[in-house]
Structures are given as C-alpha cells and as structure tokens.
TrEMBL record:
Name of the protein described by the UniProt record: Amidohydrolase
Database matches in InterPro entries: Amidohydro_3 (IPR013108), Metal-dep_hydrolase_composite (IPR011059), Metal_Hydrolase (IPR032466), YtcJ-like (IPR033932)
Pfam families linked: Amidohydro_3
GO molecular function, one term: hydrolase activity, acting on carbon-nitrogen (but not peptide) bonds
Superkingdom, taxonomy of origin: Bacteria
SUPFAM superfamilies: Composite domain of metallo-dependent hydrolases, Metallo-dependent hydrolases
Annotated organism of origin: Streptomyces spectabilis
CDD domains (UniProt xref): YtcJ_like
Gene3D superfamilies on file: 3.10.310.70, Metal-dependent hydrolases, Urease, subunit C, domain 1
This protein's record includes keyword Chloroplast: no
Annotated keywords: Hydrolase
Every Amidohydrolase domain range: 51-535
Length: 541
C-alpha cells in the first residue's frame, strides 16, 4: 500500500496519558497510521508521490471531533444577519435597521443568533422591532434554534393569525390575551409555519454553504463531528460532497425520530443504519425529550419562575420509552436531547427499562444535560450512558451572578447546578464535548477552553459560572478525542495516535495541555488531516 503522507519533526500527544510519545514521525497509507518512529526510518517509507511535511516541532493530537453539530441545518440557519453580538434591544434595532436599508422591496430579512437576554426580562416578542420591520417579512432565529421571532408581515404571509395545535407538545404560536400572535414561535413545528412561507435557497446554494461551513471547521482543527440532523436531502448533500472529494470532515450522522413516528417510520430508521459513504455514515438516532430552558419548553421537575417548562416534548412520554426500547433491541444507539432535570431522568429511566428487558451493549447518549440533581449523576456510569455536553453554552449564555434569562428562570438552587461537567466526569460518566453549532461557535479549541475556564468568550475578565465544574486541560482534550471515539464505538480505530488507527490528526503550534485556557482559542491550527489527506494547511508549513 502506497504511503500517502509522512509527518516529520512532530510531537505526538497521547490524549490518554497526556504525555508525548517517544516517536517523532508518522506515516499514513490507506487512511490509516501505518508507522511511528524517528525521521530516518519513517522517511524511508516515502515514494515520489508521498506528501512529506516537516512539522518543525508542532504538536500532533488525534483528530478533534465535535460531539454534537448540525452541519446541514446550521449552514442554512446561519445565512443572513448575525445577531449574536447584540447585547440589548437598542443594538438589535440598529442592526435590523442597517439590514432593512439594503433589502430589495419585498425581500425577506433573515437573522440568527439572537440572545433572549437582550430583552432584559421583558417577554420576548417582536414589539420592540415593529417600527423597524414595518412591512418587512423577517424571521429572527433565537440562539437556541428552538424559537423564532417573526415580524407582522412574515406572520401575515404565513397565514398565522392565532394559536395552533401541534404534534410536538411544547410547540406553540405564542399569543397575547386577545389571541393575537406576539411574533414568538416555539419549537420546530411552529417555526416551520413561517420558514416555509419564505423563499427557499436552491439546492446548489445549500450544498455550497454546507461545503463552506465544513471547510471553516476543518481550518479550525476539526476532523470529525457527530451530526445530529439528517433530514430532507441531507444524505444526498453529504453523498455529493463525499463523492466529489469535498467532504473535509468525517461525519457520524443520526437522523431524527419525532413524536408520531409509526412502526414503519421506526423500521426505516433502523434500516438506514450503516448506510453512507467514504467519510460519512448513518449511526444512531436523534430524539428530543424537551426543548430549552430559555424559551420555557424544557421539562423540569418543578416549573420555572414563569410557571413554564412543565411538559415533555413527546405528548406521551411513555411512547418515547417504547421507542427507546425498540431501537435498543435493534442495536441502534440513541442520542436524546434532554436539558431539564425531568427530561434527563426520563431518558435514563427509559434506557434502564430497555436494558432490563433486553441487555445488550448499546451506547446511548444524553445531549446537553444543562441541570441535573445529585441523584441523577451516578446513573450515567451505572447505565453506561454517555454525557454529551456543550460547555460554551454555559460560558456565553449565562452569567456567574445568575442575572441571565436561563438562571432567572431556574432560580438559585438549579442555576447552581449548571452544566455539571466535573461532577459527571467524577461520577464515572464518559463526557463528550461539542459545540452544538450553529448554537455556539464550532472551533474546537474554543470548546475545550470553555470547558476549562467557563467564562464568557467575549469578555474573559468576567467571573466564571460554576468554576468548580471546570475540566482539566487533559479531560477537555479527551472530551474531543478518545471520548467521542468511545461514544461511537470506535475506540479500537479512532481517538489515539497508534498504528492501525485512522489517520485523522490535528496539528497545533503548541501543546494544548500547557497553553492557558484563555489563550487556547487563539492557538494556531497548522494542519488538519482526515483519512490521511490534509484538509487544511497553514502557510507556515
């Protein structure tokens, strides 16, 4: 087998021990690491077509993998006006006004990343922007991507003039006391009412946006991602990019299972497992157990301060339990979005029942886990359920003094249990880290940094939220290398630098374990390698 890539003068970092391997060079062939050694012996494996790169002492880690991303929907949702930098209503109004001035008559305004904290405790609605958006159809996605603000004109074009009933129990067209929509739409089913009334991008535009987003991720050091969406033509888009050699990340894709999925739908999800291409495959099923705390659609054991977040996403939670049982019996791993304590508990109960009925080694996961009580922690390890966490959500959308929307809704006791990465790790759970892009930025060094410092990324001088829940530098690295490999059942071929393992590698200018957490996001990514082929190369190499 021809050697395709050789890396010399490398410091090879083992994410298990945190130590550097004694070897200083590696070779790859057929997408696998085929040799580790010194420069002389590894260079001898080269032929005239081999790409040989002198890393000049740079640090090589196993390829960084994001444990929770939405590539296709993220590429679509981040098209338009980025509102994530706005901190108050005045700034949002100014940004919208600038955008409106550049719109053609009748054109739709799309915005994304809107933080509910800009409303400073006032109900989230379009009223503060009605005059700016007068006659303009606009859809403004809130940062959690579970809610949207639609302008009066957008609601009119979508024929939304009052409340609706949905299969998703927490979906809602929020209305005032007179039954008039306020502009706030909760959960996918409600948001889709307006989204489908807007002009749609062409398939080519969607493909090109997806490719651009993935290239940006590769340049940030990502070699893979656990993609939590596979709907519409997602599979076709992945296939097209993969077959053209334009898929720069290795993707593990989990299609959704929604309330109302019948036996035929469930069978189709099971039959999809294992399908894919060279760099992507369908593996697992994504399910929602609740919504989000910020918009009042999480499932909490006690309601939030507004009396909200009382219901599961599934109208009948026991139907979810039956679905988990059926997928478990088929050997299909599940990844369940569960943010509130009641949602997390129900997922664990469902997995426990499935295991009691049919014990087999299926690696189920819970996604997000934003607040959980003490008695829930140990159950992750006991049941072998992976804890999939996004620490930058805590960093950027909550505050140490609990004056943010998330914390105010939960109250002091529950806000003090925010994103318990440390407690879950110490209880024996396997903790996988991710960004949940487009909810938060995708660069993996920022995710690992957030897990360590737990401070707002825009102002690192602010106090951390729950510093006792921080991970160490090594634990954060494991959360994006060996732990995602374990969650995917790939620990025998991924997550480490070893002969026979995949040649998925991230090359950094310095040691991420000794780089200060606050400086880690700026550490240069010099090279990204997927399947033995560079997907990003810095000009310095």
């Amino acid at each position: 087998m021809r050697t395709s890539l050789i890396l010399l003068s490398a410091r090879l970092l083992d994410p298990v021990s945190g130590e550097f391997l004694p070897q200083t060079a590696l070779a790859a062939a057929g997408g696998r690491i085929t040799a580790l050694g010194d420069a002389q012996e590894v260079r001898a494996l080269a032929d005239p077509a081999t790409e040989v790169i002198d890393l000049k002492g740079a640090v090589v880690t196993p390829g960084l993998v994001d444990g929770h991303i939405h590539p296709v929907t993220g590429a679509e949702l981040t098209d338009g006006l980025d509102l994530s930098g706005c901190t108050d209503v005045v700034q949002v109004r100014a940004a919208l006004a600038r955008e409106v001035r550049g719109l053609a008559p009748g054109a739709w305004l799309r915005g994304w990343g809107l933080d509910p904290n800009v409303f400073a405790g006032v109900p989230v609605a379009t009223a503060p922007f009605d005059d700016v958006l007068d006659g303009v159809p606009a859809q403004l996605l809130l940062f959690d991507a579970h809610s949207m603000l639609a302008s009066r004109r957008a609601l009119e074009l979508a024929d939304v003039d009052g409340p609706r009933t949905f299969d998703q129990a927490t979906a809602e067209v929020v209305c005032d006391a007179e039954g008039r929509p306020t502009g706030l739409l909760l959960e996918e089913a409600a948001c889709e009412l307006v989204r489908r009334a807007a002009p749609q991008p062409t398939r080519e535009e969607r493909r090109d946006r997806l490719a651009a987003a993935l290239r940006t991720m590769a340049a940030a050091g990502l070699t893979g991602g656990h993609a939590m969406d596979a709907n519409g033509d997602s599979f076709a888009l992945y296939t097209e990019l993969d077959e053209a050699g334009h898929l720069p990340l290795r993707l593990r894709v989990a299609p959704w299972c929604q309330p109302g999925t019948d036996a035929d739908g469930l069978r189709a999800l099971i039959d999809q497992q294992g399908t894919g291409g060279r760099l992507w495959r369908t593996d697992g099923v994504k399910i929602f157990m609740d919504g989000t705390i910020d918009n009042g659609t999480a499932w909490l054991e006690q309601p939030d301060c507004h009396g909200e977040s009382r219901d599961a996403f599934w109208p009948d939670p026991e139907e979810y339990t039956r679905v988990i049982g059926a997928l478990h019996r088929a050997g299909v791993p599940t990844a369940t979005h569960a943010i509130g304590d009641a949602a997390v508990r129900h997922v664990l109960d469902a997995v426990e029942k499935a295991q009691a009925d049919d014990w087999r080694a299926v690696r189920h996961r819970v996604e997000h886990i934003e607040t959980v009580p003490d008695d829930t922690l140990r159950r992750f390890a006991e049941l072998g359920v992976v804890a999939s966490m996004q620490p930058t959500h805590c960093c950027d959308f909550t505050r140490a003094d609990h004056t943010d929307n998330w914390s105010r809704r939960l109250g002091e006791e529950r806000a003090a249990r925010a994103w318990r990465c440390r407690d879950l790790h110490d209880s024996g759970a396997v903790v996988v880290l991710g960004s949940d892009w487009p909810i938060a930025p995708a660069p993996p060094l920022g995710v690992m940094a957030g897990a360590r410092h737990r401070r707002p990324s825009r102002d690192l001088t602010q106090d951390p939220h729950g510093p006792e829940q921080a991970l160490t530098a090594l634990e954060a690295l494991q959360g994006m290398t060996v732990n995602p490999a374990y969650a995917a059942g790939e620990e025998h071929e991924a997550g480490r630098i070893a002969i026979g393992h995949r040649a998925d590698l991230t090359v950094l200018a310095a040691d991420p374990l000794t780089t200060a957490a606050t400086e880690l996001p700026d550490l240069p990514v010099l090279l990204t390698v997927v399947d033995g082929e560079p997907t990003h190369r810095d000009a310095r190499l």
